[in-house]
């Protein structure tokens, strides 16, 4: 009985210090050997991918008129904090569309480091809040989610995540794991 009491107190202290010291402000707390993205959006702890809505699906390869969707869309409510999916260096801004002055037409381009060397990711509809060249750990803050739906009623708000491996676009779906 005493043991359980001590264990409970120790666990409580650990949980409390995580809150106090901000070890994980908004992370999933996942531990796995699979190569997974860290939590990308504060409002979406499971990296849930946008399903079907009035404008299509957020799946990789989904139809976009004559084109195919070259990334995955991670559900994210407007104003949410957005995080680096893996350890990375900030390359630059990445703008999705030409001749579009909407606030959502913004994004960030990251280059993986450590075990993610060789990977790059474009994350669109995010207001970039970190300077070029900054070194980021996985899950660290990179910017805030815009309202992508402002001219698209019925669309699920989302971060577009476009992954490259050795400069070639790859399907990121298996990395949106737990
Ligand atoms: Zn997309």
Give short descriptive properties of this protein.
binds zinc ion; single chain; 178 residues; disulfide bond; signal; zinc; metal ion binding; LECT2; alpha+beta; seven-stranded antiparallel sheet
Poorly predicted spans: 18-23
As a whole number of angstroms, the C-alpha radius of gyration is 18 Å
Mean pLDDT: 89
Q: Which ligands are bound?
A: zinc ion
First-to-last CA distance: 34 Å
Oligomer: single chain
Tell me the β content.
25-35%
Q: What class do helices, strands and sheet pairing give?
A: alpha+beta
Classify the helix fraction into a percent range: 10-25%
Q: How many H/I helices?
A: 1
Biggest β-sheet strands, sense, barrel: 7 strands, antiparallel
Q: Secondary-structure element sequence?
A: HEEEEEEEEEEEE
Tell me the total number of β-strands. 12
Outline, from the CA principal axes?
A: globular
Strand and helix map with partners:
Blueprint: H1 2-21, E1 63-64, E2 67-68, E3 72-75, E4 81-83, E5 88-93, E6 107-112, E7 119-124, E8 126-128, E9 135-136, E10 141-145, E11 158-165, E12 168-170
Bound molecules: zinc ion (ZN).
Describe the structure.
GO terms for molecular function: metal ion binding. InterPro entries: Dup_hybrid_motif (IPR011055), LECT2 (IPR008663), M23ase_b-sheet_dom (IPR016047). There is one protein chain. The protein has 178 residues and is of the alpha+beta class. The protein is 11% helix and 28% strand. The chain contains 1 helix and 12 strands, in the order αββββββββββββ. It has one helix spanning 2-21, and strands spanning 63-64, 67-68, 72-75, 81-83, 88-93, 107-112, 119-124, 126-128, 135-136, 141-145, 158-165, 168-170. The strands form 3 sheets. Strands 3, 5, 6, 7, 9, 11 and 12 form a 7-stranded antiparallel β-sheet that branches. The radius of gyration is 18 Å and the shape is globular. The structure holds zinc ion. The site of zinc ion (ZN) has 4 residues, from loops.
């Amino acid at each position: 009985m005493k043991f359980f009491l001590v264990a409970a107190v120790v666990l409580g202290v650990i949980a409390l210090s995580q809150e106090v010291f901000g070890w994980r402000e908004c992370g999933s707390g996942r531990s796995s050997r699979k190569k997974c993205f860290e939590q990308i959006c504060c409002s979406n702890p499971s990296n849930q991918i946008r399903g079907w809505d009035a404008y299509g699906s957020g799946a990789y390869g989904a139809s976009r008129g004559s084109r195919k969707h070259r990334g995955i869309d991670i559900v994210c409510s407007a104003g949410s904090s957005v995080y680096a999916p893996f350890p990375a260096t900030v390359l630059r801004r990445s703008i999705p569309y030409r001749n579009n002055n909407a606030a959502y037409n913004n994004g960030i381009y990251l280059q993986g480091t450590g075990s993610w060397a060789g990977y790059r990711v474009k994350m669109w509809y995010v207001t970039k809040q970190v300077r070029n060249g900054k070194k980021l750990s996985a899950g660290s803050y990179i910017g805030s989610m815009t309202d992508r739906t402002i001219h698209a009623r019925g669309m699920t708000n989302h971060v577009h995540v476009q992954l490259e491996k050795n400069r070639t676009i790859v399907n990121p779906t298996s990395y949106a794991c737990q």
